[in-house]
């Protein structure tokens, strides 16, 4: 298997997607943030209120902004106009579950946009809650599923 971002000379290169067909592309990524009981006791309704503001609402905005700027953060990503970016944050026990669903009509996938959106939302939760505890762990960030392109993917 060859790496898609390495050219024939062994140098980094952006993938040429010029000949690819425009198709509907979607991706969903998840980050799990273990907050612990000390932070979760501040959960009121569906959000954690802090002096900095509502944690999950702020994280949703940050994740959306980051997904739209993925090409500025990941060196060889293409610039994409996203048709949709939806972040949701739910709680399960003492963890916050961040999901980022991204879609576009394009020649290349949106996996990185979904992963960046979920990651930055998770980091925002960390930042806004760290005054309450430093025992926060971002357990995982992973691609859950993608459609469009050569092949679809869905994690079991």
How does this structure look, described?
By secondary structure, the chain is α+β, with helices and mostly antiparallel strands. The protein has one domain: Alpha-Beta Plaits, CATH 3.30.70. Helices cover 26% and strands 35% of the residues. It has 4 helices and 8 strands. It has helices at residues 37-40, 55-68, 70-73, 111-129, and strands at residues 23-34, 43-44, 47-50, 53-54, 84-92, 95-106, 137-147, 153-154. Strands 5-6-1-7-8 form a 5-stranded antiparallel β-sheet, with helices on one face. Strands 2-3-4 form a 3-stranded antiparallel β-sheet. The chain is elongated. The chain starts with 22 loop residues before the first strand and ends with a strand.
Task: Record keyword descriptors for this entry.
Alpha-Beta Plaits; 5-stranded antiparallel sheet; alpha+beta; 156 residues; 3-stranded antiparallel sheet; elongated
Short description, anyone?
By secondary structure, the chain is α+β, with helices and mostly antiparallel strands. The protein is 26% helix and 35% strand.
What are the SSEs and their pairings?
Blueprint: E1 23-34, H1 37-40, E2 43-44, E3 47-50, E4 53-54, H2 55-68, H3 70-73, E5 84-92, E6 95-106, H4 111-129, E7 137-147, E8 153-154
Antiparallel strand pairs: 1-6, 1-7, 2-3, 3-4, 5-6, 7-8
Helix pairs in contact: 2-4
Count of alpha/pi helices: 4
Helix residue percentage: 25-40%
Give the overall form: elongated
Distance between the termini: 23 Å
CATH topology heading: Alpha-Beta Plaits
Q: Which range does the strand content fall in? A: 25-35%
Secondary-structure element series: EHEEEHHEEHEE
Largest beta-sheet characterization? 5 strands, antiparallel
Number of strands: 8
Mean of all residue-level pLDDT scores: 93
Text of the CATH class: Alpha Beta
CATH-level-4 superfamily name: Molybdopterin cofactor biosynthesis C (MoaC) domain
Structure class: alpha+beta
The number of distinct structural domains comes to: 1
Low confidence ranges: none
Taking strands numbered 1, 2, ... along the chain, how are they ordered across the largest sheet? 5-6-1-7-8
Q: Radius of gyration in whole Å, from Cα?
A: 17 Å
Keywords: Lyase, Molybdenum cofactor biosynthesis
GO molecular function: cyclic pyranopterin monophosphate synthase activity; GTP 3',8'-cyclase activity
Pfam families: MoaC
Domain Molybdopterin cofactor biosynthesis C (MoaC): 14-149
